[in-house]
Amino acid sequence: MTGLIAGGSTLLGSAMQSRAAGKAAGAQSQAAEMGIEEQRRQFDEVRKLLEPYVQAGQPALQGMQAMLGLQGAEAQQQAITDIEQSPLLQAMMRQGEEAMLQNASATGGLRGGNLQGALAQFRPQMLQDA
């Protein structure tokens, strides 16, 4: 009879242990799924936060590639033309030329060759420095 009770106890203990192990495995699996979902949620949030910078960066990158000639000679020439015709560069060129003319006028060198040479070199140099 003791053998029967011991066998029954062992069988009952094994069944309970198996059920507990199954519950533990289920809880672990559920925790892993919850962790994965949280990581996915955080990833999606970071993507939302970065989206404006990605949108702003793509045209800027294309502009840089065009300027470097990586999108072909025609795109490079168009990028250079766009810079030449930009209002900011035009204003800076006018301001620089006016300053040279005012200086030459004040020093009596308006008709000199130095002024003509300086004016001829000024715009290409400004564009190169831009």
In quaternary terms, these chains amount to single chain
Question: Which ranges are low-confidence, i.e. pLDDT below 50, for 5 or more consecutive residues?
Answer: none
Q: How far apart are the termini? A: 101 Å
Shape: rod-shaped
Short description:
The chain is mostly helical and 130 residues long.
Verbal overview:
- By secondary structure, the chain is mostly helical.
- The protein has a domain at 86-130.
- Helices cover 90% and strands 0% of the residues.
- The chain is built from 4 helices and no strands.
- The protein has helices at 2-68, 73-84, 87-107, 113-129.
- Helix 1 packs across helix 2 and helix 3 packs antiparallel against helix 4 (113-129).
- The longest helix is centred in the N-terminal third of the chain and has 67 residues, at 2-68.
- The protein is rod-shaped and about 125 Å long.
- The termini are far apart.
SSE diagram, text form:
Blueprint: H1 2-68, H2 73-84, H3 87-107, H4 113-129
Comma- or semicolon-separated keywords:
130 residues, rod-shaped, single chain, mainly alpha, 4 helices
